[in-house]
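It is worth pausing here to work through a concrete case rather than discussing structure prediction in the abstract. The textbook approach is simple: state the sequence, then state the predicted structure, then interpret. We follow exactly that order.
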Amino acid sequence: MRVLVVASFNKGRFAPFIIEQAEALKEQGCEIEFFGLQGKGLRGYLNNVPQLKQKIREFRPDVIHAHYGLSGLFANLQREIPVVTTYHGSDINDKSALPFSKMAIRLSGWNIFVSRKIIEIAKPKKNYSLLSCGIDLHELQQMNKSEARQRMNLEANKRYVLFSGAFDNEVKNAPLARKAMEELCDPSVVLLELKGYSREEVTLLMCAVDALLMTSFTEGSPQVIKEALACGCPIVSVDVGDVKERIDGVDGCYVAETRHATELASLLQNAMGFEGKTKGRERVISDQFDNRLVSQQLMKIFKIVCRK
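Step two, the predicted structure:
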């Protein structure tokens, strides 16, 4: 099966989880090619229409898999090839993006939502699935803390909290994370920004730190949580996206009942006191978020759409 992946390329690269999902699909026998959208908003995306049609003529895909609602709407501007659109959260949670996503939902041959919460907001009537994006499982995720710290040049006598994204990403709500750190009143605890690292370095950081902290205003099914689980990293998060569902019952992982810095600081103390790795990796496996299993589900959806 030939699959054309359509997604934003405004940062000069595709999101790592999109690349990893495509690689897993290749293992299922798919032939994959990418089409990167450049420009802002639907008006900017419209400038890509001639190139998309040219790509379709050259590659002749069986199905187009678009990531995010605006990409799905764009991909549906042609009606020759069926479109499967995956909605990741920001395209549904953002009120300005939601109308475009709803148009994509009506036009797409199938719609994939990464969490139940965004299904409740989008209210699709038919032809949809709940399917979160998977992650790759590998040996590096099982490295012990001391070795990972050495490789990342982190000090042995300090405690480290890894923030769930870039400090300048407003959706991630870094001010709340900083307030929680202030509540700890402990200068030996360092808040690290998750920005500018390679995929290998991100894994090493998750093995090296004492906890991951998520304070986002909105999320869909955040990949960073699944990746931290796979590394056995303790987690503290506000109740956002599907985080509660993902980490519920995993010792060393906590979801705050409020968005108060005092509560988050208290939970961080608990998380940082957890000895060894959590059972998060087992949870990722039992919830079937291995990319190989997710890609098998995607293949079933692609076949349904192609039969239509």
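Step three, interpretation. DSSP finds 15 helices and eleven strands in the chain. The mean pLDDT is 96.
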